[in-house]
Specification:
By secondary structure, this protein is of the alpha+beta class. The chain is built from 35 helices and 45 strands. The chain is 32% helix and 22% strand. The strands form 11 sheets. A 6-stranded mixed β-barrel has the order 1-2-8-3-7-6. Strands 14-20-19-15-16 form a 5-stranded mixed beta sheet, sandwiched between helices. A 5-stranded mixed beta sheet has the order 29-28-27-30-31. The protein is extended and about 150 Å long. Pfam families: Asp_protease_2, Integrase_H2C2, RT_RNaseH, rve, RVT_1, SH3_Tf2-1. Its EC number is 2.7.7.49, 3.1.26.4.
Length: 1109
């Protein structure tokens, strides 16, 4: 088989089609200048900032720029950036580099001269015969060059790599002489001239230790144990050309020094370049997913108390830092594959222990303690890569320094002379200042509290009291000391900063910065860091829980934001507070599991994000070496760091903060973990008593409780002789469990019974049924979305009238099909006393049309009624309709919203619709043909309520139709006085009154069977029935919308069934059937508010009353 000279594939780029070369030696996809002009406009050309590219023949060429091109290969399309080269630098139209091969997933089989795609390996394509396409419109010189040396071009002009040097490279120490480094270190020593000469001799006599070169120890190797053996493979992050260039330069240096080597590993982690303070870029590997599956190394870190005790009596100190300490530890051969990282140039793995691995600190601590052995706690101690040598005299210190250097030389380790400090009389270590005078606390730990300025406003007083009150239990007589400050908060009190206020302020600050507020850290106890960021500054507090769970402050910190930082988003400011505090307290927090408490929940998202185009992710990568958990706490509960972040202090004031990585197996969406449950059980007084009683076997309820794995369980004996164990839930965790077992998607917002049964299976506490009932009943989602299955509220309230034309009802029926007379609406009037009706078909239902009909056909024909009742349609609330009513002295009344039953016209409309439907059949455009006849039918029909016809009550006589005239005989007694009109009307009124009374009683009895009483008080919280409308255009379904909205407050009662509620900043009249009580009620909210105030202002001392903060 012939060895291929070129790997040619057919492609299409815009209107151009041809052959392109696949070049695995080219870092970028290259495009000829003339082809770029054919497929793109000059505006699309982006400037190239990466410097010249080096071709395979060694010549450097500066690209003209770069563009994004859409490459079609077979039936697939890929968008990649292409570097534009000038005509003299490129012999072919397009060369496809490694970036195209990676993003397309191209699989190359050189031996069989075929290729396929990773997404479809079964479909293989042969490489094209012949050479790649040449660009059009090339110069004659270029064409001649290709004819005379085509074979040479095939081999030399296909590869382009970034330039070998750039300003964005890692720092090389080769340019610095070892002798210079030694002299610089000696000059900084606090020694006499003779002493410095002796120190110089010691350092020069250890050239294999005191050098800029990175050592390599054979004492131990780092091994990675993963819980999952399935390799984790990730794609590389895309980098800008400038960062790509810097990354390749650093990779080249690491390859040359043997730190990394090419790999065939199945593991792959991406690389990110993080800016340093000096502007250079640091090469970092994102090992977050590898760390998530790595088993923890339980090797202990030193105890700070023991370290400080070992310094007793020392007066001379030296600090030694190792050269890139981690890189001096070799990787175990079996674990090298797991350190593999992927870049556009290929796959590589580390030969040495890289930064960012989970157990790297434990391995390095084990190495240093093995190397120094018995010297620890005698002449030195070590904390990770920091070695502190201490002695009682200068002479002894020279001997001790020689011993330490000899141990390091034996182990093959080298030191970083730039960071080493020799023969000091005082050092700062782990938050303590150590000197020949003894050990004192680091003043910077409490500088944030000391620098808290005197308040100038009431808001600043409240902020300071919030900070101080957070730890008021540690300050004896807190309420007495704070009384002058608390008096400023009283209602009506004029703010005046007196001498007593200043004394109280100073005394509280003194208490907050003296024991027991600032305690000594214990590295065996987990740390807790509270952080907060405001618009002007950052604040944080470092604490630990000691002595039965009591929280002890280790350090305070805060600082103001710089000009650029002020423009950060809220999430970036919160993350800045975390990373700044973390690095400030790195000596406490590194390599230990701790908790970060913040009032910004977005940080939990940031830690799990894979986006790399923001400073947030670059900051997150700086936190890889820390092991922490984020706990979200609402801002109003995070008052202490909040006050620190808002206090106006200098930019140099220190801060302390923390951040924690969320372990993937901790299920952050679950409200309770085993650790939290255990801690809260032991903090609960009721459970603590039961645990003690069970342990002493003194509980009369021994059958009901049992301790399993140091947690209290409730036992229930089942019928089949089995025992059902349910964990006893402490009071602090009950709200979270209720929320989870009711509101979580796995629980589905079920009702009281189902929620209780679900929770009862796994948990127990006294009064669970009552708590579940209250929780479900107060659930906002359930209150707004569930149907009210009870009888509708509001019993019948009859409307009584005593004469015709006292009250009229009016309503609009429609729109109806346009009739032959062009009518679409029907205006209906009804008299409440006589039930007399009037119909008026209309073409348009405007306020002006209705007002005209009212004036011409009602008021001027039948007289002016006392009242006219309508719904809340726009026509009836318009100024035109109201002006007519006001002019004719008619009082308009409106029904309550969404309760049309109030208007008698609605009942007439139902009867009228049935009449119309009976005569139109399929000709619906003739609905107004028989309206006069239908009006006659209703007005001449005997009403069930009154027992007479509307005409008799309204006109004093019956209405007769044509058939009535034929069937009725002559009037037998026309002259009898009993048939006098007045007497007849009086009899009718008496008859109507009695008939109406009986009818109303019957209607009340029947109607109220389906109704219930419901009353509300002023200020009650209520839900208002919602009437949403579906919208296909907005993708909104009324069936899925809330059935109720609010809550609102009841302003006043308008009668037995109508209330005015506060709605959209105004009052609206609502019928009681559209209201329901909101839980918690107003009374319950008031009780809860008072209880919260009592909890806040309750002093722990029984003798003093805490005034609050």
């Amino acid at each position: 088989m012939t060895i291929p000279q070129q790997l040619v594939v057919p492609i299409r780029v815009g209107p151009w089609s041809g052959k392109a070369i696949l070049d695995t030696g080219a870092s970028y996809t290259l495009i000829h200048e003339s082809l770029m002009k054919q497929i793109a406009t000059p505006d699309e050309l982006q400037p190239w900032t990466g410097g010249p590219l080096y071709l395979a023949n060694g010549k450097a060429e500066s690209p003209l720029g770069w563009i994004n091109i859409n490459i079609h290969l077979h039936n697939k399309a890929f968008t990649v950036p292409a570097v534009v080269l000038p005509s003299q630098a490129l012999a072919y139209a397009i060369i496809l580099g490694l970036d195209f091969i990676f993003f397309s997933g191209l699989q190359i089989n050189v031996s069989e001269q075929k290729y396929s795609f990773k997404s479809d390996l079964a479909e293989e394509h042969p490489f094209q015969l012949g050479n790649a396409s040449e660009p059009l419109n090339t110069s004659p010189t270029m064409k001649e060059g290709k004819r005379t040396s085509k074979s040479k071009l095939n081999l030399t002009l296909l590869s382009a790599v970034p330039p070998p040097q750039s300003s964005l490279t890692i720092l090389h120490m080769d340019s610095v002489d070892d002798a210079t480094l030694i002299r610089d270190a000696v000059s900084k020593a606090q020694l006499s001239t003779d002493g410095k000469q002796q120190l110089l001799q010691i350092l020069e006599s250890n050239p294999r230790v005191c050098t800029h070169r990175t050592g390599r120890t054979d004492v131990l190797q780092h091994r990675i144990y993963t819980t999952c053996q399935v390799p984790i493979k990730q794609r590389p992050y895309r980098l800008s050309p400038v960062k790509q260039q810097a990354m390749e330069e650093q990779l080249e240096v690491m390859l040359k020094e043997g730190i990394v080597e090419p790999s065939h590993s199945a593991w792959a982690s991406p690389v990110v370049l993080v800016p340093k303070k000096n502007g250079n870029l640091r090469f970092c590997v994102d090992y977050r997913k590898v760390n998530a599956t790595t088993e923890s190394d339980a090797y202990p870190l030193p105890n700070i108390a023991e370290i400080l005790e070992s310094l007793s009596g020392a007066s001379i100190f030296s600090t030694i830092d190792l050269n890139s300490g981690y890189w001096q530890v070799e990787m175990d051969p079996d674990s090298k594959a797991k350190t593999a990282f992927i870049v556009s140039a290929g796959l590589y793995h580390f030969n040495v222990m890289p930064f960012g691995l989970k157990n790297a600190p434990a391995t390095f601590q084990r190495l240093m303690e093995t190397v120094l052995g018995e010297l620890r706690k005698k002449i030195c101690f070590v904390y990770i890569d920091d070695i502190i040598i201490y002695s009682t005299s200068v002479a002894q210190h020279f001997c001790d320094l020689k011993t330490i250097l000899h141990r390091l030389e034996t182990a093959g380790l080298t030191i970083n002379l730039k960071k080493c400090k020799f023969f000091l009389s005082e050092i700062t270590f782990l938050g303590h200042v150590v000197s020949n005078k003894g050990i004192t606390a680091d003043p910077s730990k409490v500088e944030a509290i000391r620098a808290f300025p005197a308040p100038n406003t009431l808001k600043e007083v409240q902020r300071f009291l919030g900070l101080a009150g957070w730890y008021h239990r540690f300050v004896p007589n807190f309420s007495k000391i704070a009384e002058p400050l608390n008096s400023l908060k009283k209602k009506g009190q004029v703010f005046k900063w007196t001498t007593q206020c200043q004394q109280a302020f100073d005394q509280l600050k003194a208490c907050l910065t003296s024991p027991p507020i600032l305690g000594h850290p214990d590295l065996q106890v987990p740390f807790i860091v509270y952080t907060d960021a405001s618009d002007t500054g950052l604040g944080a507090i470092l604490t630990q829980r000691k002595d039965l769970g009591k929280e002890e402050v280790i350090a305070y910190a805060s600082r103001t934001l710089t000009g650029a930082e002020i423009n950060y988003t809220a999430t970036e400011k919160e993350c800045l507070a975390v990373i700044w505090a973390l690095e400030k307290w790195e000596h406490y927090l590194e390599y230990k599991l701790f908790t970060v408490v913040t009032d910004h929940s977005a940080l939990q998202w940031v830690m799990g994000s894979t986006k790399t185009n923001s400073r947030l992710i670059r900051w997150v990568l700086r936190l890889q070496k820390f092991n922490f958990i984020i706990e979200y706490r609402k801002g109003k509960l995070n008052v202490a760091p909040d006050a620190l972040s808002r206090s106006l202090i200098t930019a140099n004031s220190p801060i302390t903060a923390l951040y924690a990585k969320q372990k993937t197996d901790q299920h952050p969406e679950l409200p309770v973990t085993d650790i939290v449950l255990w801690e809260e059980q032991h903090n609960d007084c009721e459970i603590t008593k039961l645990l003690q009683a069970v342990a002493e076997e003194q509980s009369p309820q021994m059958d009901q409780y049992e301790v399993v794995e140091d947690k209290l369980y409730h036992k229930t004996h089942l019928k089949n002789d089995q025992i059902h164990y349910r964990v006893y839930v402490p009071g602090s965790l009950r709200p979270a469990l209720l929320q989870h077992y009711h509101s979580h998607p796995l629980s589905g917002h079920c009702g009281i019974y189902k929620t209780y049964k679900r929770l009862q299976e796994v948990a127990f506490w006294p009064g669970m049924w009552t708590d579940v009932k209250h929780h479900v009943r107060e659930c906002v989602k359930c209150q707004t979305l569930r149907h009210d299955n009870r009888k509708p509220a509001g019993k019948l309230q009859p409307i009584s009238t005593t004469k015709p034309n006292e009250m009229l009802g009016v309503d609009i029926m429609g729109p109806l099909p346009r009739s032959t007379q062009q009518n679409e609406y029907l205006l209906v009037f009804v008299d409440y006393y006589s039930r007399w009706v009037e119909f008026f078909p209309m073409r348009h239902a405007t306020a002006q049309s209705i007002a005209t009909i009212l004036r011409k056909e009602i008021l001027t024909r039948w007289g002016v009624p006392d009242f006219i009742l309508s719904d809340r349609g726009t026509q009836f609330v318009s100024s035109v309709f109201r002006e007519v009513c006001e002019k004719w002295k008619v009082t308009p009344k409106l029904t309550t919203a969404y309760h049309p039953q109030t208007n008698m016209t609605e009942r007439v409309n139902r009867t009228l619709k049935n009449m119309i439907a009976s005569y139109v059949d399929d000709n619906h455009n003739k609905w107004d043909q028989f309206l006069p006849e239908m009006r006659f039918a209703i007005n001449s029909a005997i009403q069930e309520t009154t027992g007479v016809t509307p005409a008799e009550l309204h006109l004093g006589r019956k209405l007769e139709g044509p058939m009535d005239k034929i069937l009725h005989g002559p009037d037998l007694t026309p002259d009898t006085t009993s048939y006098d009109v007045i007497s007849h009307i009086q009899q009718l009124q008496c008859q109507v009154k009695e008939s109406s009374r009986k009818a109303q009683q019957r209607q009340l009895r029947n109607y109220n069977k389906r109704r219930r009483d419901s009353t509300f008080k002023i200020k009650d919280r209520v839900w208002l029935r919602n009437f949403p409308q579906s919208s296909a255009q907005n993708k909104f379904s009324a069936k899925l919308a809330p059935k109720w909205k609010g809550p609102y407050r009841v302003l006043t009662s308008l009668g037995p069934v109508n209330y005015r509620i506060a709605l959209e900043a105004t009052g609206e009249d609502v019928h009681v059937c559209n209201l329901k009580m909101c839980f918690p009620t107003a009374e319950q909210l008031e009780v809860q508010r008072k209880k919260r105030l009592q909890d806040i202002f309750q002093e722990t001392s029984d003798e003093e009353e805490f005034l609050g903060f």
